[in-house]
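Title: Request for sanity check on Lipoprotein prediction

Description:
We are preparing a figure and want to confirm that the structure record we downloaded matches what your pipeline produces today. Could someone re-run it with the sequence below and paste the raw structure tokens into this thread? We only need the token string, no images.
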Amino acid sequence: MTAMTILRHPLPRHRLLRRLLPAALCIGVLASCSSLNSMMGGSSEQDALKALKWTYAADGVQIALMADPHLNQSTDQPHTLALTVVQMADPNAFTAATANSAKLTTLLLADSPPPGMLALNRVFVSPGEQRTITLARVEKAQYVGLAAGYYHLDPARSARLYRIGVEVNSSGIIVTTRQAAPEPLKIDLRLGASGIQESPGAGAPPVTLTKPKAGPVPPPAPAPAPAPAPAPAPAPAPAQQP
């Protein structure tokens, strides 16, 4: 049969509709599955995230640290380092507390959580030490900040901010119910001779209603340099006397 024959004898309309109807029904079913699931008492991932509770967990923060043998080196000698761990709901609290060396020093010396923070723990790390620190995740905590007391007190090398991830579990076959819960935050921390290694820096983007993924928070983009002021116009030369 040639192409011309096919063009001259198209499928009857009823046969064409019969072929297209199953595909249209499938599309309609898929589009209505979410609504039908909700009507029957189920829930979507968005529903689970809206109902998410940032609850307490006894082992919610786990820090596997490895310290360089030359940790916190000064005058050719390694030294023990103080590591401050804070938890908060708003990442801006940590960003403000580590904005410069003076504020970082205040955080490192704090005996209780500063304003905007929910918990503060301090541990001491020796040169060459390897161990895992397990801390309780306090209620409402969504971020964990680390501040290391290096001699140089440079926030870019001493402070890191991490976001706690969320896991969404589903149950049911005909009606699917989903529940969201915070995941344990696991941090691999490498403390080098003069700074934290293998961990992107502090700062956090605005949080949208999506499933949070555990891990380090990227640093904010640097502010653009101000434009130079225009040079003043030269003064006119004095007129010469005739």
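Thanks, this matches our download. Helices lie at 3-8, 13-39, 45-50, 92-97, 101-109, 155-158.
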